[in-house]
Amino acid sequence: MPRMRVSPNPFGSRARLQFELEQRGQVSCRVFDVTGSQVAVLADLEMNAGQHELCWVATEAGPGTYFVELRTSAGIKCARLVKAQ
Predict the structure, then answer these.
(1) What are phi and psi of 5, to 5 degrees?
(2) Sign of CA dihedral 13, 2, 79, 30
(3) 17, pLDDT greater than 80
């Protein structure tokens, strides 16, 4: 299972997602709102093994709770994000 860290949380307009891949492979990272609607695609590509960082610039998203889903060949990891304002 991939390890993922989200900071800051809660966040204002920008959240960073840091994760590590043990091997090269396809990575999909998407953000969903509480209704399950996709609001952002942060990655959908092949990445090398190692440390990676993605940034969600959420200036168009309103305050509330969101979920980020990271899919790799090692598994799926989800995290809850709270946008303050």
Answers:
(1) -130, 135
(2) positive
(3) yes
- CB burial of residue 46 (10 Å; 0-12, 13-18, 19+): exposed
How many angstroms separate the CA atoms of 48 and 75, rounded? 16
Q: Which fold has domain 3-83?
A: Immunoglobulin-like (2.60.40)
Is the predicted pLDDT of residue 2 greater than 80, yes or no? no
What value does the mean pLDDT take over residues 31-53?
96
- Determine the number of helices (DSSP H) and then strands (DSSP E) in the chain: 0, 7
Inter-residue contact 5 to 19 (CB < 8 Å): yes
Instruction: Indicate the domain borders of the chain.
Output: 3-83
Whether residue 31 contacts residue 40, with contact meaning beta carbons closer than 8 Å, is answered with: yes
Give the per-residue pLDDT at 5. 93
Distance separating alpha carbons of residues 19 and 67, to the nearest angstrom: 16
